[in-house]
Amino acid sequence: MTTLRAVRAGQVRNALAIACLVAATAAPAADLSVSESTTLNASPSAVWKVLGKFSGLPGWHPAVATTDILKGKDNAKGAVRSIKTKDGAVIVEELLSYDGSAHSMTYRIAESPLPVTGYVSTLAVAPSGSGSVVFWRSGFDRDPAARDVTDAKAREIISGIYQAGFEGLRAALGETPR
């Protein structure tokens, strides 16, 4: 009986070691993160009607001029969008996952002038009282080529993008700005 327990314990340790190794190589951990949220009066489905289209940023984010799908189908895993901001910057993003019924999408930045690398973000909507709460979270590293940008400044830039988006979302929904 003791030998059987020792064998099982060894198998469990090996399985855990393999799982940790796979997790470590599958998605490198980002050093920095930003997590923002805002509460809205609109229902989650009303908010998702505005937020839930991968190509729909111009309809609610005040910094975005156009969004074009370059590859794949809108809202389908693997879709690639090109975002042109009102100041002329271009950001290319890939949709990693999309769940319309859960009101959630995860995407990554493939090309960007932002001082970050390895950026992966999730935008999600959940019920909150009689309204909803929107979560926008990301993990990333500061781009080492951006020598004049500190970690704190990189987080501040990303947070500012999220906050501007929340204000644009409020306007798109006809809610009062904060």
Descriptive report:
The protein is α+β, with helices and mostly antiparallel strands and 178 residues long. It has three helices and seven strands, in the order H-E-H-E-E-E-E-E-E-H. It has two domains: 29 residues; 143 residues, Alpha-D-Glucose-1,6-Bisphosphate, Chain A, domain 4 (2-Layer Sandwich). The chain has a seven-stranded antiparallel beta sheet with strand order 1-7-6-5-4-3-2. Strand 5 and strand 6 form a beta hairpin. The radius of gyration is 20 Å and the shape is globular. The termini are far apart. The N terminus is likely disordered.
Topology:
Blueprint: H1 2-26, E1 32-40, H2 44-51, E2 64-71, E3 80-85, E4 90-99, E5 104-111, E6 116-128, E7 131-142, H3 151-173
Antiparallel strand pairs: 1-7, 2-3, 3-4, 4-5, 5-6, 6-7
Helices and strands, in N-to-C order? Answer: HEHEEEEEEH
Structural class by helix and strand composition: alpha+beta
Return Rg in Å.
Answer: 20 Å
Give the termini separation.
Answer: 65 Å
Low-confidence spans: 1-28
What is the helix content?
25-40%
How many domains? The number is 2
Q: Provide the CATH architecture of the largest domain.
A: 2-Layer Sandwich
Strand numbers in spatial order across the main sheet: 1-7-6-5-4-3-2
Give the CA-based shape.
Answer: globular
Strand composition percent: 35-45%
Biggest pleated sheet: 7 strands, antiparallel
Q: Count helical runs.
A: 3
CATH topology term of the largest domain: Alpha-D-Glucose-1,6-Bisphosphate, Chain A, domain 4
Name of the CATH homologous superfamily of the largest domain: START domain
